[in-house]
Write a structure and sequence with these properties.
Layout lengths: L1 E2 L3 H10 L1 E5 L2 E6 L7 E5 L7 H21 L8 E6 L6 H22 L1
Parallel strand pairs: 1-4, 4-5
Antiparallel strand pairs: 2-3, 3-5
Helix pairs in contact: 2-3
């Protein structure tokens, strides 16, 4: 799993990306030719301490990697930004929400082709 790096990539992602929100999770996607999907996170301090935010980041990265490995066709090339808007909940629920968001994004990309 790659990482979104550089100010230009982050700003392009925020300005031109496709936004999908489900509950307290929002995902922004922007197509870019990459070998592997690149992932970034935006988790505000209101969510918790640095330790809690880092734990959330690790959990979402693990969930995202698991989804990519299980069905790589469902996750398009490009940059992804996961925004967490409120406190963290159960890991199993997060996996379900992230899967739903990626399925919506997959359907959206299918329609665009």
């Amino acid at each position: 799993m790659g990482r979104v790096s550089g100010r230009d990539r982050h700003s392009a992602l925020l300005k031109r990306g496709i936004r999908i929100r489900n509950g307290s999770i929002e995902m922004i996607y922007l197509y870019e030719k990459t070998n592997i999907p690149c992932l970034a996170f935006a988790i505000p301090k209101s969510v918790g301490t640095a330790v809690q935010r880092n734990k959330i980041r690790r959990q979402y990265r693990e969930i995202f990697t698991k989804i990519v490995k299980s069905d790589p066709r469902k996750v398009a090339q490009g940059n992804y930004l996961v925004k967490v808007h409120s406190t963290h909940s159960e890991n199993s629920k997060n996996e379900t929400v992230l899967t739903k968001i990626l399925n919506e994004l997959y359907e959206y990309n299918k329609k665009q082709k």
